[in-house]
Write a structure and sequence with these properties.
By secondary structure, the chain is α/β, with parallel strands linked by helices. The chain folds into 2 domains: 22-108 and 211-249, D-Maltodextrin-Binding Protein, domain 2, CATH 3.40.190; 109-209, D-Maltodextrin-Binding Protein, domain 2. It is built from 9 helices and 11 strands. The protein has helices at 2-15, 46-56, 73-78, 122-126, 150-156, 165-173, 184-193, 226-238, 241-249; strands at residues 23-29, 37-39, 42-44, 61-67, 84-88, 99-115, 133-136, 159-162, 179-183, 201-203, 209-218. The strands form 2 sheets. Strands 1, 4, 5, 6, 7, 8, 9, 10 and 11 form a 9-stranded mixed beta sheet that branches. Strands 2-3 form a two-stranded antiparallel sheet. Helix 2 runs antiparallel to helix 9 (241-249). The longest helix is centred in the N-terminal third of the chain and has 14 residues, at 2-15. This is Substrate-binding periplasmic protein. Residues 1-21 form the signal peptide. Keywords: Signal.
């Protein structure tokens, strides 16, 4: 009798349990607006929304956002703290690593800005190395030949390194440097939110850098493969989810793929 009761309880417990637990895929991300915003301990942005969408269209994996540092993301990958990162570019120090690059229909860029004045800005933007600069630590910029080592940058440039795009903008407004570098999509978002900034800053006529964005996946991951991730991302593109996610975080009409030149 006792054995029968135990067997019954075991059957009830098993019937109420899922057949299997989803495998966790850790997705690294650092403040890089509009893709990742940090609000105190919370995170938001295009990356977080895309992770949620990927979790909704499949039930094999649970993608989980893992906050990382922009300056230590390579070390974090090497230590297996995450296996996937979205809205990255393989030129940003990832060379020689066990990675697959899956392109996304997104591109962005960095642009130099300065405070408005009566002076001619032609020489200013053509020779930024002659002026005091403000840039985001860990980012790769064309003016510095994509070198992002803080010691190198401080040795070769008069540069203030800050934590994110908003800090770069605010440092310029406080006149802590002559030129600030800022992600173009983020700047367009801020200008739409605060149109009076248009009267305070001047934009360079061309980008400092322009880059394609995509997903970087650990090539040797035992279960999640490139073809699966590509299939899901293509599905989200085809059903309009990627466009809807983008429109939640950037000004209406701002393209996901920026034009080759501002001129």
């Amino acid at each position: 009798m006792r054995n029968s009761l135990l067997l019954c309880l075991l059957v009830i417990c098993l019937s109420g349990s899922p057949a299997y637990a989803k495998e966790i895929i850790r997705v690294g991300g650092y403040p890089f607006a509009p893709f990742v915003y940090r609000h105190g301990p919370a995170y938001d942005g295009v990356t977080l929304a895309l992770i949620q969408a990927l979790n909704q269209i499949q039930d094999e994996f649970e993608l989980s956002f893992t906050p990382i540092s922009s300056t230590r993301r390579l070390q974090g990958f090497d230590l297996h703290r995450f296996d996937l990162i979205l809205f990255e570019n393989p030129r940003w120090g990832w060379e020689g690593r066990d990675l697959e690059f899956i392109p996304l229909p997104f591109s962005d860029g960095d642009i130099m800005i300065t405070l408005q004045s009566a002076e001619d800005t032609t020489a200013l933007f053509q020779h930024p190395d002659k002026y005091s600069l403000i840039a985001v630590q860990g980012f790769h910029y064309g003016f510095a030949n994509y070198q992002n080592d803080p010691d190198y940058l401080r040795q070769h440039y008069d540069i203030l390194l800050v934590k994110d795009n908003e800090s770069s903008l605010q440092a310029l407004l406080r006149k802590r440097g002559k030129i600030a570098l800022i992600t173009y999509s983020y700047l367009m978002t801020r200008l739409s939110q605060q149109p009076e900034l248009q009267r305070q800053i001047t934009l360079a006529p061309s980008y400092d850098t322009r880059y394609a964005l995509g997903a970087l996946l650990r090539a040797s991951h035992p279960h999640l493969h490139r073809t699966q991730l590509e299939k899901w991302l293509n599905q989200l593109e085809q059903d309009g989810s990627l466009a809807r996610i983008w429109e939640r975080y950037v000004p209406k009409g701002y393209p996901r793929v920026i034009p080759p030149s501002r001129q």
